[in-house]
Design brief:
Number of helices: 4
Order of helices and strands: HHHH
Helix content: over 70%
Radius of gyration: 18 Å
Structural class: mainly alpha
Distance between the termini: 22 Å
Number of strands: 0
Shape: elongated
Largest sheet: none
Length: 126
Amino acid sequence: MKRIIAAIILCIFVVSVLIVGNIVINNQCDGLKKDINELKSDIFSDKTEEANQKIKNINDLWESRKTVMSIFSNHSPLDNITIALSELTLAIEVNDKNISLVKCGEISALISRITEEQRIHAESFF
């Protein structure tokens, strides 16, 4: 009987961790996606000063978000976002609108991929 209770408690714990991890990942990704969309509108509107300030803020926020997300997610997509953010920072610094917009799209796609990979599927439990 004790083993069954222990197994049930362990199962509840694992499901809880999966749910909390999914919520954390989704919240972090939604925040980053919102920031990238705001940056994209600044780039598209040729607001270079605002874009420079916003990319610095995004980079600072990303470091803390990445640390939290690395607990629950695969590190490879997080590293890809870090690389794309550094490339975006350079594109904004040299004022290249086309490359900046492409990099914003790439980061948005990477974020969507992370949230898709983190979805809770039935096979996660078995």
